[in-house]
């Protein structure tokens, strides 16, 4: 196993260090942050015939239980590959990925995955699709019926449980896919551009729905997206990856408290973070300049 590369330190819009009772400056006590997902020097080389493609090069970061982390980066830089390695659906060429201190060696029941396409089975009803992972895991379906119905209610799909996927809109199909990913109550949700095929208005609705779900049932999440605004709205941290072979160039803490309202997208602070991330992705670390004002390394 390779020695872990130094992961970029998380930067944040930090509040000023609190003053003590007599105005003295107090050091903030360190918060324990156990690593729930730990990626250490992960590297992926695809071999296609005689050619090889280095998709991911020396990526290191960690995620605390309950954190929502978005991954941004240029097209083709290796984001999906990284996510699939975390899901145990793609092998790791070198390095290490650990989930809850256990090395990742293959798919796990404790991880739900969502893709750009809802991948619902067309011949099954919405409810049957949602309960499909329960059947795959050979668990008793009746034990999950209440949970499935409550997820349907939470995502506004009550009344559509017996429809087939082709009878739903694209947004409704993705909502059903969220229910399916959450039905077994996984610890981790990995999402690969889940809303990128939707129109702008439906995407906004989905972001709002996801914020609502997170308020009620927080999970540990990795969320790959091309939308900088979506990343800042949804995530606790945003990781920015370089062009292929990908490494992480910035780990930015998003300071907005939860529950979050999509109207934070109109604030100056939100737009400052978006401008910074856009500069980083379009022009690289030099073009983006320093992280937003008052940034500090916790
Ligand atoms: N199975 C594969 N075999 C060979 N090369 C692959 C395979 N999957 C991905 N690649 C290559 O690895 C690189 C990274 O691909 P990946 O899909 O991980 O990038 P991405 O950042 O998710 O892209 P996008 O943002 O466009 O979805 C690309 O050059 C791609 O062509």
From TrEMBL:
GO terms for molecular function: ATP binding; ATP hydrolysis activity. Keywords: ATP-binding, Nucleotide-binding, Transport. It holds the Pfam family ABC_tran. Signal peptide: none annotated. InterPro entries: AAA+_ATPase, ABC_transporter-like_ATP-bd, ABC_transporter-like_CS, ABC_transporter_ATP-bind, P-loop_NTPase. Residues 1-16 have a biased composition (Low complexity). PROSITE patterns: ABC_TRANSPORTER_1, ABC_TRANSPORTER_2. Residues 1-33 are annotated as: Disordered. Residues 37-268 form the ABC transporter domain. The keyword Transport applies. Belongs to the ABC transporter superfamily. This is ABC transporter ATP-binding protein. It comes from Roseomonas acroporae.
